[in-house]
Write a structure and sequence with these properties.
binds ligand DLZ, Crypto/Photolyase_FAD-like_sf, binds iron/sulfur cluster, mainly alpha, binds flavin-adenine dinucleotide
Length: 512
Amino acid sequence: MVKAQRIHLVLGDQLSHSLSALADADPKTSLVLMAEVMDEATYVKHHKKKIAFLFSAMRHFAEELREKGFQVRYVRLDDPQNTQSLKGELTRTLAESGASAVITTECGEWRLAEEMRGWETVLGVPVEIREDDRFLCSIEDFRTWRKGRKQLRMEYFYRDMRRRHRVLLEGEEPVGGKWNFDAENRKPPAAGLKGPKRISHKKDQITKAVLALVDERFAGHMGSLDRFDFAVTADQAEMELQQFIDEILPNFGDYQDAMVKGEPYLYHSLISSYINAGLLLPIDVIRRAEAAWFEGRAPLNAVEGFIRQILGWREYVRGIYWTEMPDYAGLNHLSASRPLPQMYWTAKTEMACMRGAIGDTIEHAYSHHIQRLMVTGNFAMLAGIDPAAVCDWYLAVYSDAYEWVELPNTLGMALYGDGGVMASKPYAASGKYIDRMSNFCGGCRYDPKLTTGPKACPFNALYWDFLDRNTEKLGRNPRLSNMYATWRRMDPFKQDAIRKHAVRVLETLDTL
Ligand code: FAD
Ligand code: DLZ
Ligand code: SF4
């Protein structure tokens, strides 16, 4: 084992050469530590493709650091000495290298951040935890931004971020005369809409070895490793970004909310796993999209919509997470308590939209935003599923999932479990919405126009029942007043039939 003065710990989602923990790493006196450990691979049962992506990307990153001249200790999952915890690997590395300090970058989950706060005591050496400056708003800046605001809304945060980073501005004004082109981003899918063919990266020896390892060690986790297309280096992620900017971004805006059977990606960028793991930097992605508009290669509704997701939503949810935790994870505003239906693990259901969204998830460890929000998320909220079970599912099954981004999106945005911290109203919708924005209903056993009876779309009765059973908590929300007025005007016999049908649906969730 090499001797070193300082250990620089790099976590699996910190694969950026500009990482703050590496800023002053010295090839002679520093030792970079990276470790594949069961603690991180099993705190939820991550999808096999998520683990394989991360382990392969970690191994490639370690190779790149070695090529740059750094001393790297890379501990593989099947190393017989592996203690299978980050703390254990730090302890072992400190003892063997003789180092007397640890440097790392703040991590993305409260559970690990809590543990890290205790490391100095446990390890008996100074542990410096540096800010993660890959994000465009520090946690402290977010805390200052939100201070004194009665209501938090992403839109105002986003405008401040546009000004602060001077993105899509003309002087102090937004290009195109408005900040937000969301209203132009809601086109239903045109008949025959098909997304472009995506890049599939060739698997090298490193990736093949990881796939074999994951196949053997994580057999009980969701998914299969067939067709593993992920980029596992920054160069490969850059190829995907380039394809997105050149060929896909121009249509991103129009079809951002569309859903099409058999088209898991449509015009989405598929870069979330790469940004979240550090293979792409958010500011670079934003500048590339911005340049596409300034150079006339993509329309403003697409470029603004895309930038809003990264400069706005992504930074905003992170700020919410770190300023609301740890209490946030336990919130359950609507007192939902049903267990997660089996279909979330198997995709075995006759509801075509759920089968599609969950099927994509099992196959690709991916489904796009509207599927996550308006299909699987919406269904879980309408059916009153226990938020903790739903959040664990989202954290496990998506290759881009880390709690800092997953939790506010699931608990706050999809389930309204935080009672309105994230969203001004629940994103509740009936089958009518899914019918308008997708082509799923045509091939479904259920009918989106029916609310009761054996062929009725389960979303419909659940939608009204959800509003009815939560009247006390939601009835005064001005953004729901039209829907409550419609419900109140409904014939009491019809209301009763809907309530009864909803009970039947809720009793048979596992056989829908
Ligand atoms: P695109 O649609 O192409 O969007 C571009 C980028 O914008 C994304 O890559 C992502 O970095 C960012 N972005 C878009 N929407 C959001 C958002 N709401 N919050 C944060 N960043 C956003 N995203 C995650 O990265 N990890 C998660 O664990 C995650 N869990 C989610 C759970 C639920 C219930 C919902 C409704 C959304 C969740 N999202 C999560 C947000 C969003 O669905 C994904 O970022 C997006 O689907 C990733 O696909 P893409 O790269 O093709 O995104
Ligand atoms: C998600 C993940 C997995 C599956 N495995 C590892 C690992 O073996 N070693 C590691 O350093 N990181 C891993 N990660 C990412 C961490 O879970 C992530 O850094 C924390 O959740 C904080 O965001
Ligand atoms: Fe989904 Fe209902 Fe449409 Fe079937 S009818 S696809 S369950 S929205």
